[in-house]
Amino acid sequence: MNAYPPILRDLIRRLSKLPGLGEKSATRVAMHLLQCPREDAESLAEVIRQMRDRVRTCPRCFHFTDGELCSICADPARDTGELCVVESTADLLALEQSGAFRGRYHVLQGALAPLDAVGPDDIRIRELMRRVDEEQVKEVIIATNPSNEGEATAHYLLQLLKDRPLKISRIAYGIPMGGDLKYTDRITLERALKGRQNFA
């Protein structure tokens, strides 16, 4: 990479820190930015600048927004009484792309991880409990990830919510469409069997 001018080396180094970009991909992006029309590169830089200035977390659900509330919280049609709790905005976006959920979300911005010194005060649990008490929440759907941290967070939330007059549910885990039983791990098979539904 020493053959590149210092400013180009610096750009490649910075781009390679982005998720999913290694040095080769970062070099391709840098070469594209160098060779594309100047206005394209400048408009990209301006959009990044504006994004950093305008986008913040929604004060209600902690998803990203550039307004007073995010588009989901501001949509009256989403007030179904269902509140889906996720670890991150990326999880929220995955559920939204499925089109399967039409309620509202609460983004914890993390999961409990005692080994990493992440406790209940380090994620948005206090705000979740306030929403449950103040909003017309009928069901809390716990959609944390199927990891040790996600399971610990789900169990902790269950203990906090179990005495409140609402339904508490956990998203099901199982075998993906097109999956093959013989290649599925033991824990996934166990969850798929426990979460089975009546066929007829």
Report on this model:
The protein is an alpha/beta fold and 200 residues long. Among the domains are: 35 residues, Helicase, Ruva Protein, domain 3 (Orthogonal Bundle); 94 residues, Dna Topoisomerase Vi A Subunit, Chain: A, domain 2, CATH 3.40.1360. The chain has eight helices and six strands. It has a four-stranded parallel beta sheet. Strands 1-2 form a two-stranded antiparallel sheet. Strand 3, helix 5 and strand 4 form a beta-alpha-beta unit. Helix 1 packs across helix 2. The longest helix is centred in the first third of the chain and has 17 residues. The chain starts with 5 loop residues before the first helix and ends in a 6-residue tail after the last helix. The model has no long low-confidence stretch (mean pLDDT 91).
Descriptive labels:
200 residues; alpha/beta; Dna Topoisomerase Vi A Subunit, Chain: A, domain 2; four-stranded parallel sheet; two-stranded antiparallel sheet
What low-confidence regions span 5 or more consecutive residues with pLDDT below 50? none
Q: Would you identify the CATH architecture of the domain at 79-172?
A: 3-Layer(aba) Sandwich
Structural class by SSE content: alpha/beta
Query: Could you tell me the strand content as a percent range?
Result: 5-15%
Radius of gyration, rounded? 22 Å
Instruction: State the end-to-end CA separation.
Output: 63 Å
- The sequence of SSEs as H and E is HHHEEHEHEHEHEH
Return the CATH class of the domain at 79-172. Answer: Alpha Beta
Annotation field: number of helices:
8
Q: How helix-rich are the residues, as a percent range?
A: 40-55%
Number of strands: 6
Walk across the major sheet and give the strand order.
Answer: 4-3-5-6
CATH third-level topology of the domain at 79-172: Dna Topoisomerase Vi A Subunit, Chain: A, domain 2
Overall geometric form: globular
Q: Biggest sheet: strands, sense, closure?
A: 4 strands, parallel
- Determine the mean pLDDT: 91
